[in-house]
Amino acid sequence: MSGSEAGPFGPGLASAVSARLPGPKWLVERRASAARQLAGVALPVESEEEWRYSRIDEIDLSGAAPAGRDGEPAGPSSDAGRLLEAVGSRAATVRALAGVVRTVEVDPEAASLGVAVVSAAGLDVAPEGLGAVLEPRHDAFTLLADAFGADAVVCTVPAGVHLERPIVVVHELGEHPDGAVVLPRTLVRLGRGARASVVELVSSGEGRQLAVPVVEVDLDEGAQLAYTAVQQLGRATWQVAYHSSRLGRGAVLRSFVAALGGDYARQLTESALAGEGSAGELLAVYLGDGSQVQDFRTFQEHVAARTRSELVFKGAVSGTARSVYTGLIHMHPGAKRADASQTNRNLVLSKGAHADSVPNLDIEENDVRCSHASAVGPIDEDQLFYLASRGVPPEVAERLVLLGFFEDLLSRSPEPGVADYLREVVVERLSAGVLPGHPHREAS
Amino acid sequence: MSTLTISGLRASVAGREILRGVDLEVRSGEVHAVMGPNGAGKSTLSHVLMGHPGYTVLGGSVSIDGEELLTMPTWRRAQAGLFLAPQDPVEVPGVSIADVLAAALVAAGRLAESERDVLEERLASEAETIGLSPAILARALNVDASGGEKKRIETLQLAVLAPRFAVLDELDSGLDVDALREVSRRVERATTAGGEDALGVLAITHYRRLLDELHPDAVHVLVKGEIVASGGPELADELERTGYASYGRPEEQLAPVGPDPFGGLFG
Question: Do A383 and B108 touch (CB under 8 A)?
Answer without folding.
Answer: no
